[in-house]
Every structure is written in C-alpha cells, then in structure tokens.
Specification:
The chain is α/β, with parallel strands linked by helices. It has eight helices and ten strands. Strands 6-7-8-3-9-10 form a six-stranded mixed sheet, sandwiched between helices. Strands 2-1-4-5 form a four-stranded antiparallel sheet, covered by helices on one side.
C-alpha cells in the first residue's frame, strides 16, 4: 500500500468572485521529490498555500501527513519556503537560524546540522544581505529544515538563479529526498522536470498531467517536458473549445 504525504481531492480556491483552483486532485507519495510545474499565474502558489494551510476560501479535501492541512500538529512536521526570502537581511545566517530554532524549540545543535546540509559553512557568520542569490535560497531552505520536517513545500526556490546554481539546489533537493524527506517543489522552468520522481503540470488552476517524467514523454511523444506541456495544452478541451470559438468567429466575419 502506497503512503501519501499529501492527498488532495476536488480542491477549489476562490479569490473574490474568481475561482483560481478548479477541483485539483493529486497525491504526493511519501519520500518522493515531486515537481509542481506550470507557467506564472497557473495557481502553483495558491495550491501550495492551501497545502500548508495558510490559504483562505479553500474547499475540498487537503490531507497532509494524515491530518487536515493547517492542523497545529503539522507545524513542526512541514517546512515551507515562500518565493520571497524568509530570513532577515540584517542578521547573519547563524543568527537567523538560532532565532528560528528558539521559536521552534529545537536544539541549537540542529543549527549546525542545517548549515552543513545546505553547504553554508563558509557563510554562517555572513550577513544575509550580503549573500548571493543561491546562498540566500539555501539560507531560506536551512531555516525550513530546522527540526527535520518530514515534508518540504518549496515555492519557486530556483527562480532568478543561473543554471549552475539551479543544478546545485536540485542536487540538494535530491539528497534530502534520499535521506527520507518528501519534497513538493514548484517551478516554471520546464527543464527542471527531469530531476523529479513525479510531475504535476498545472495550467489555469487545472491539472494537465500527474505522472513520471518518462511516462509524460511517452504519452505525449515529446522530446522534453516543455514540448510535452505544449502538447497537452493543444489537446486540452478548453484549448480546443477556444480554438473552435475563434475559428467560428473568423468564419462569421469572413461571411
């Protein structure tokens, strides 16, 4: 029997009068590295916020580590990294981590562990404001790793980084998964798909695919994830309806 760290069923989110997630259902197997991919504005951040329990106006089912999303019992079991840096710029890396460790009531020795696991040893006593983009991303990740959470939800952790730094972070994500953590990582960079065990492709608040990278390429006949994504869009009923509507409109104008 497969255990799931995340299970959602018919998850819907409204912002004002607009529904931004339309009945999203998917699972994240325990111990896996799952990529949540899609263009900007597809609903990735809203979905992640619903999973960690900080999103308003959520309907449907979202279960995390066997508990309803946002349950108090999950606070020390889930690490969440937002797109914006989640550390203080006027403190050093170590000062930030000591501060968050005191809030989480974890041993100070854990600070050394997360510094080592994120390769921040040389920057430990450096002000966060002076870090490079990749180092800043690792500092935010280090804060999320305090207390050894079972699930990590990472929202666009590689955005704005050069290819070398992105590879370094994904290597770290894989190492964390091999050590037993479950990771849900969002991105709009399609070439990062090959680094995941499973892919959830999201567009306009709907899931277009939920399968392994190899399965996705085989099903679409595409050479890479970006081509597969475009193929899925072209064959999606909404796209076909829109194309048909544009064609009908053009025909009417021509007549």
């Amino acid at each position: 029997m497969v255990n799931y760290a995340i299970h959602t069923d018919d998850l819907r989110v409204r912002r004002g009068k607009k529904e931004v997630l339309h009945g999203v259902s998917f699972d994240v197997p325990t111990g896996s590295l799952v990529g949540l991919l899609g263009p900007s504005g597809s609903g990735k951040t809203t979905l992640m916020r619903a999973i960690v329990g900080v999103q308003r106006d959520v309907k449907g089912l979202a279960t995390v580590l066997g508990h309803p999303a946002g349950s108090p019992s999950l606070r020390h079991r889930v690490g969440y990294v937002t797109q914006d840096a989640s550390v203080y710029g006027d403190l050093t890396v170590r000062q930030n981590l000591n501060y968050f460790a005191s809030i989480l009531h974890v041993e100070r020795a854990d600070v050394d562990r997360v510094i080592e696991s994120t390769d921040l040893g040389e920057q430990a006593n450096q002000l966060v404001d002076s870090l490079s983009g990749g180092q800043l991303s690792r500092a935010s990740l280090a804060a999320a790793l305090l207390g050894s959470p079972e699930l990590l939800v990472l929202d666009e952790p590689t955005v704005g980084l050069d290819p070398v730094l992105r590879v370094e972070l994904w290597t770290l994500f894989r190492r964390l998964a091999e050590d037993g953590a479950t990771l849900l990582v969002s991105s709009h960079v399609m070439d990062e798909a090959t680094r995941c065990d499973r892919l959830v492709l999201l567009r306009e608040g709907e899931i277009l695919a939920d399968e392994t990278p190899a399965g996705l390429l085989e099903r679409t006949g595409a050479a890479d994830a970006e081509e597969a994504f475009l193929t899925l869009i072209r064959h999606h009923p909404k796209h076909l309806d829109n194309h048909s509507a544009h064609t009908d409109s053009a025909n009417e104008e021509a007549s």
